[in-house]
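so my prof wants the structure for this chain in the tokens format not the other one, which i didnt know existed until like an hour ago. anyway here's the sequence
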Amino acid sequence: MADVQHIHNQWRETSGTLTQEKEALQENRAPLAARSVAFKANKPAGLWGKLTYAFTKATKIAAVDRKVRKLDTQIAGKDFALRQVAAETYRQLGELSLEKMQDGDTLRKNYQEMQTTRAKTDVAAKAVAVAIKQSKDASDFELFDMASNNIGISMLSYLETDEAAQNIKAVGEALTDLNKHLRTAEKLDPTISAALQSDNNLDLFVDVVSEFAGIFTSYSNMKKLDEAVSKMTPVQTSLQELGDEVNKSLRHIQTVAIQAVQKQHPDVVTAVQSLQQHLPHDAVSALKSGPRAFKL
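here's what i got, hopefully its the right format
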């Protein structure tokens, strides 16, 4: 499997750079954090000492603490980037292994179904996010319209609400398409819907908004927009949960494929071992279990 080495080399190069950047940030953080801790550990007694302490804390240590918090955020960003790169590398190794698997037709078919589900879930999630934002903005415009009594503002408000209505309809179409796909996937393989927990409330959101009332009816429109947001918000949560389940299912198939080819392609084992500390817990747990468990 010649491509494994290329994937592994890319990971080592990228992870090495990110790790060096993280270590540099940690090195800068250490003396600042130590200075702050040492200062706060020695609170003086007496009125003059307390006043001096408070003044120093406000004028000097507060700035140090801000630098520490900023560095903490940057360090966390490097950790997040490492996890993202590791997950992407694992996906590449898994899909490469899936291609090389013998007797893997069913697994490959299920993987393709999961990928389609992932894509349709992403489309629906994006549509919901856009519709929620647009509905909130349009509702604010309707409120402004009621207060302004200006024909120009009323026209702008109408246009904002019309755009929100179109976005809401797009959500309905995306959810209908996603649910149709999930039902089809269930017919092909009943375990797919069970694994994805697809018995959800995604199709509750079909009749949120039919028609908006138009110009000069801001109060009615605002109520409909707010109702749409309240109904779309739990749908957004359901889509997030569905997306998480799909990702886990995709990783599980990747793991099965990696375990299946590890004897024929030991370089896969080496590559996966270098990723393990940055992989999601479910992937590492799956690798360690079963008759083909990795020695991680």
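also thought this was worth mentioning. Helices lie at 3-40, 47-100, 105-148, 151-188, 190-196, 218-261, 266-275, 281-287.
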